[in-house]
């Protein structure tokens, strides 16, 4: 009598956790700096499900905490995983989308200090469409080309710029983000 109920419950639990994230290149993760800026509950929410949406992450309300930029994850916790890219270089991404939700997606270079977009490198008008029998391969394996037209010196300091994957599931009204920190080598 109990087994089917427990099975159904555990399936349901799996369903409400796990939506998607970037698996390569290495993307920002939460750490002590995020904990001090956004609060331990925000870090705990990400650690409970690394693929969950921004809407599941409680901010402590501090003006310094912006869950909308890189899920609130801080450069200071990720200084060891800064990637180096040359102008024009193709960068391959892999993502996992265990629970797709149709909506737009893009990959953009963001100025972290001002949270403004410097350049958008890739746009999907429709991404992670759960109504398709199979997702296009480019939803989980895609490439972007690094710009050749940045200003001299731009994005050359670690932490100055980040490359943000952004996806909004229309039906679920849920937002997903991951940030790859990088420096341009020239
Ligand atoms: C992606 O989610 C997994 C859990 O499925 C987690 O272990 C990993 O740290 C997450 N990675 C990022 C970059 O968010
Ligand atoms: C990126 O992907 C392309 C096409 O799949 C492949 O030819 C290339 O070798 C990959 N680059 C790296 C650095 O893995
Ligand atoms: C990228 O996605 C964000 C969030 O939907 C949106 O604000 C921005 O306009 C998008 N950029 C492009 C070029 O589509
Ligand atoms: C992804 O692949 C689909 C199916 O082949 C194609 O229609 C779409 O234009 C591709 N999107 C991007 C951003 O490459």
Chart the SSEs and their pairings.
Layout: H1 2-16, E1 21-24, H2 32-38, H3 40-48, E2 83-85, E3 90-96, E4 103-111, E5 116-127, E6 141-145, E7 161-169, E8 174-184
Parallel strand pairs: 2-8
Antiparallel strand pairs: 1-3, 3-6, 4-5, 4-7, 7-8
The structure holds 2-acetamido-2-deoxy-beta-D-glucopyranose (4 copies).
What report would you give on this structure?
Residues 1-18 form the signal peptide. With 186 residues, this protein is an alpha+beta fold. The chain has one domain (22-184): Coagulation Factor XIII, Chain A, domain 1. Helix content is 17%, strand content 32%. It contains three helices and eight strands. It has helices at residues 2-16, 32-38, 40-48; strands at residues 21-24, 83-85, 90-96, 103-111, 116-127, 141-145, 161-169, 174-184. The strands form two sheets. It has a five-stranded mixed beta sheet with strand order 2-8-7-4-5, with no helix packed on it. The chain has a three-stranded antiparallel beta sheet with strand order 1-3-6, with no helix packed on it. Strand 7 and strand 8 form a beta hairpin. Helix 2 packs across helix 3. The protein is globular. 32% of the residues are buried. One 2-acetamido-2-deoxy-beta-D-glucopyranose binds at residues 122, 124, 136, 138. One 2-acetamido-2-deoxy-beta-D-glucopyranose (NAG) binds next to strand 4, strand 5 and strand 7.
């Amino acid at each position: 009598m109990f087994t089917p109920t427990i099975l159904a419950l555990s399936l349901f639990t799996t369903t409400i956790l796990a939506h998607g994230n970037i698996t390569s290149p290495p993307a920002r993760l939460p750490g002590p700096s995020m904990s001090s800026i956004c609060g331990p509950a925000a870090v705990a929410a990400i650690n409970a499900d690394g693929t969950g949406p921004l809407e599941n992450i409680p901010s402590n309300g501090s003006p310094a905490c912006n869950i909308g930029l890189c899920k609130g994850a801080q450069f200071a916790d990720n200084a060891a995983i800064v990637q180096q890219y040359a102008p024009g270089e193709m960068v391959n991404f892999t993502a996992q989308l265990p629970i797709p939700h149709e909506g737009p997606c893009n990959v953009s270079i963001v100025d972290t200090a001002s949270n403004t977009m410097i350049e958008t490198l890739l746009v999907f008008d429709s991404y992670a469409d759960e109504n398709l029998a199979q997702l296009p391969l480019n939803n989980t394996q895609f490439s972007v080309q690094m710009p050749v037209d940045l200003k001299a010196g731009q994005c050359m300091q670690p932490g100055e710029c980040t490359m943000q994957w952004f996806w909004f599931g229309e039906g679920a009204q849920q937002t997903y983000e991951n940030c790859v920190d990088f420096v341009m080598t020239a």
